[in-house]
Amino acid sequence: MIKPMLLQYAKNNLPFDDPNCITELKLDGIRLIVSNMESLRLYTKNTDATDKYPELHDAPLEKGTVLDGELIVTDEQGKPDFEACNARFKSKKLKHQVTFCAFDILMYRGIDVTGLPLHRRKELLEESFEETPYYTRVRPVTGSATQYFDIVKQYGLEGIVIKKKQSKYEVGTRSWSWVKVINWKESEVFITGYNKKDFSWLIGVKEGNKIRPMGTMEHGITKEARVLAWPILRRSKISENNQFIFVEPLLKCRVKFRDYYKSGLMRIPVFQGFLT
Predict the structure, then answer these.
(1) Which residues contact 6 (CB under 8 A, 6 or more apart)?
(2) Is 223 a catalytic residue?
(3) Looking at the domain covering 185-275, what would its CATH class be?
(4) Catalytic residue among 3, 11, 26, 163
(5) At the top level of CATH, which class does the domain 6-182 belong to?
(6) Tens digits of per-residue pLDDT, 109-130?
């Protein structure tokens, strides 16, 4: 397995314009390495996924080619659907069509090209295969990254990636040469419970006289936030089960999150601070 090069978050999650960088659309799917060395293999960050995607086995790649990219499933509007992509990963019996979107090349005709600058690897990527319904390329966007991010937000897409043109491919490294800017959504929620075994909180939003559950929040909760919340959570207990203590919705906080699941729950809510 090849460990992919990973991204950092852009400072303050803000896009920036730099003539020494390229900009790409960040696709909301599953990171995938496609290797056609001795045989075709498909690798996620943690698993050999070759058997999960038989439609990708007829790859338009010469022997000696290794590509990095994102595996996506698109919805009826043509937007990447992470939930459908994740469901397909768990069960190949589902009929969701996947597409591999290549954005980098690591091996070209049996030669390791990770040490070449990104702009040159992009040229080799263009030469490495003919596109099919299952294999396509992610191409850089010309013009302003800041303006492009505004368009991404308008269409409700995941975000953008800004990459240095001269960057090498740093295998298994989270590098500042590639940074992501995420189109976070924001909301105000109430804390409705907490996990007995870790530091996660249950959250919900008020609808009339009721609280609608929005899922579990694990990210962004600092030690200081837990210390501030604990006296109120402890004295506002309503009930419990094997996993959670349920509390009155007395604490309100601000969160950011990626999107909504089809169930209506928030995807990856991140604590931002308490509200008075």
Answers:
(1) 172, 173, 174, 175, 178
(2) no
(3) mainly beta
(4) 26
(5) alpha beta
(6) 999 999 999 999 999 999 999 9
